[in-house]
Amino acid sequence: MSTHTPPVTFGASAGAGFATTHLDALTDEAITIIREVATECENPVLLFSGGKDSAVLLHLAVLAFAPARLPFPVMHVDTGHNFDEVIEYRDRFVSDLGARLVVASVQQSIDSGRVVEDTGPRPSRNRLQSVTLLDALAEHGFDAAFGGGRRDEDKARAKERILSFRDRQGRWDPRQQRPEPWDVLNARIRKGEHLRAFPLSNWTELDIWQYIAVHELPLPTIYYTHTRTVVERDGMLLSVGGPVVAEPHEVPYEAVVRYRTVGDASCTGAIESTAANVYDVIAEVAAARITERGATRADDTFSESAMEDRKREGYF
Amino acid sequence: MSNTATAQRGTLRIATAGSVDDGKSTLIGRLLHDTKTVFEDQLAAVVKASRRYGDGETNLALLTDGLRAEREQGITIDVAHRYFATPNRSFIVADTPGHAQYTRNMVTGASNADVAIVLVDARHGVLEQTRRHAFIATLLGVKSIVVAVNKMDLVGWDQAEFDCIAKEVTEYVRALPTPVPVTAIPMSALLGDNVVAASVHTPWYDGPPLLDWLEQFDAYPRGEVGGRLHVQRVIRPQGGEFADFRGYAGVVNGGGLAVGDAVTVLPAGTTTTIRAMHRAGKPVESAAAGHAVVIELATKVDVSRGDVLAMATSGTSPIVGEIVDADICWMVEQPLVVGSRWWFKHGSRTGRATVTGIDYHHDLVSLAQEPTHELALNALGHVRLHLSEPIVADRYADNPAGGRMILIDEATNSTAGAAMITAVIG
Fold it and tell me: Which parts of the sequence belong to the Tr-type G domain (chain B) (predicted)?
């Protein structure tokens, strides 16, 4: 896997090892959504976590406006609980694509008293991100935020509109969503309200990986197989170090793993895998019997409606 | 499970329809389960939730009823989108709610569908919601309807019951303003009969199970009117290597476009030629309907967002006008009345629309066109709108992408109506 981002060369063609009709249709749809929202809204922003979905989203956004520059900035909501190389990757990928990066820091939200750090035995900053995100949207006056959320990730996400309304408190009301007939997007809002746009709504995990293969997108190397010291907790492999501390009854051990999602390090689990490149990963994902979030996100297995509850509060 | 070599026939978009408790979510759960699309952790969660909500057996509807309120009440409130693939095809499924009060969400799900699967409970037969949904689905332009006569196990797999329901729906759809072919399949979504595998209980049925039918269905668009592009955005790098670049971004619809084609810029009426075209940043010689492209023109002409580039040589040109007649699905509490004003959005053009006439509303049972003074929530009717600026449109029946429009509530900004243009008066 290349570690350097091939810049989007306007006019260059990419190769593919498989039929791409379905992927091309998803690409057309995503690019159209990005163009429409960026044109209708005054001050949009693209949320970028350094994970695979946001890498695909940012790449599509750059293609949508090429050869002109990306007409909006990219924002990372930084929990401070990151995998080091994800931050390096973020900075390089965003800069290689010629985008401008804004960082909103959960640590700053804690320091300024906007949120209180969880002091339980297994602290996570995942839920605190919603406050930091909403504060940053307000501070910069962003009226629309592009996110990499996909409907196949979670049953609450499966209910999302492509262009989803958020009230002045940043809340999602799943019982009162605007109808969304066809692809005619209604971007009208009042001051203080905002929109979330999900251009990857109809993509599956496999579609994401195929796009990564076709466009040879670099990813943080933790998406591919490596050896790591982990503990097994609630059926998940958590990397020891940083926010995760082995508890007395837990025995850390070396495992051959990769990450299927990249999120807050305190609640993102690795999976056992020997997939060394994008084609290995595609084969692995096609044969997977556990969902992406079920295998890797402690926050979603916590309760039956964990994602819905977080989304109602303003989560991604 | 998904396969890397899918989609030989192109993606098929499906929406469920039918009355509450006819088994829509259970059917989708069954399709996902029997195509091995349900993951182990999802199934474990559903088994656990089924116990919690007191359902006797594993309730597959919980696979799509993802909101807490839905799971508690055992109903579908909003559309859920699910994805599955067989070795032959990729599917996008919109599981829509059956309750009349959530019809707007059914419209959302059905508006993008190629096929509507209308469920009917074999014990209860055709209900008002069955008719409403079949009507809406055909008005929105699905290409075919599958009548899933469900819960056949509860009527003893009785062929006469099935034939009766199949005939009633087929005749109803045939009498609609925009009829489409109807296929009826006897099934039990709960038990899996005739969903993915053929049933041993219906020896009198010689058609395919549902999944086979869906895999074979040809959803390719017909009756092209000629390529058009509603300009979404003008791409102007303004500096650097591409300082002189000027491209017009949008989605090709109504037919294909190719480099060298003569196009008319509407509403201005100037004619020029396509010099170059790009799709996802790559140069292309031609583009088909649905492709998102950037078009460069051979001459410097005035083109901005909301304008339309249309093939100058095609059989049917779009119509430019400020007065439109349209079928409309009404989706908000505030009724649509003559004199009311709304925002409209058509293609990439937005403005004000004033309702100047309500010709009739559709009575869903008699199919009569009844005169009315207003369209209430969930009503279907035919209206005349005067727009604040001209649009470049097609009749929905000729080219859906050029004939669809939404109305937006000026006070709340909610999407209030889905309009399908039947005439543009220039």
Answer: 9-222
Give the contacts of B362 (CB within 8 A, at least 6 positions apart): B135, B177, B368, B369, B370, B380, B381, B382
- Checking DSSP bridges between strand B115-121 and strand B12-18, what pairing results, if any? parallel
Residues A70 and A100 in one domain: yes
Q: Which residue has the higher pLDDT, B186 or A6?
A: B186
- Judged by a CB distance cut-off of 8 A, whether residue B13 touches chain A is no
Q: What does the buried/exposed string (b/e) look like for B332-357 if buried means 16 or more CB atoms within 10 Å of the residue's CB?
A: bebebeeebebbbbbbbbbeebebee
Across the interface, of B1, B41, B233, the residue whose CB is closest to A39 is B233
Q: Residue B81 corresponds to which tokens in the numbers above?
A: 């989108």
Decide if B63 and A68 are in contact by the 8 Å CB cutoff: no
In chain A, the number of structural domains is: 2
Nearest Cα of chain B lies from the Cα of A238 at a distance, in angstroms, of 18
Residue, of A315 and B399, whose pLDDT is higher: B399
On the 0-12 / 13-18 / 19+ scale of CB atoms within 10 A, A13 is exposed
Quote the pLDDT of residue B251.
Answer: 97
Name the minimum distance, in Å, from the CA of A112 to any CA of chain B.
34
Please check whether residues A155 and A37 belong to one and the same domain.
yes
> B228-311 belongs to which CATH class?
mainly beta
In this predicted structure, the answer to whether residue B260 has a pLDDT above a threshold of 60 is yes
Work out how many CB contacts closer than 8 A connect A with B.
197
- Report if residue A16 sits inside a domain: no
Where are the CATH 2.40.30.10 domain residues in chain B? 228-311, 319-425
Residue A13 lies in a domain: no
Does A301 score more than 70 pLDDT? no
pTM (predicted TM-score): 0.93
**ipTM of the assembly?**
0.93
Dist. CA B210–CA B191, nearest whole Å: 14
Q: Which CATH architecture has domain B319-425?
A: Beta Barrel (2.40)
Topology of B12-216 in CATH?
Rossmann fold (3.40.50)
Residue A183 shares a structural domain with residue A279? no
Q: Is the preceding peptide bond at B267 cis, omega within 30 degrees of 0?
A: yes
**pLDDT category, B6, cuts 50, 70, 90?**
very low
Mean pLDDT of B91-100: 88
Range of the domain at A118: 21-217+307-312
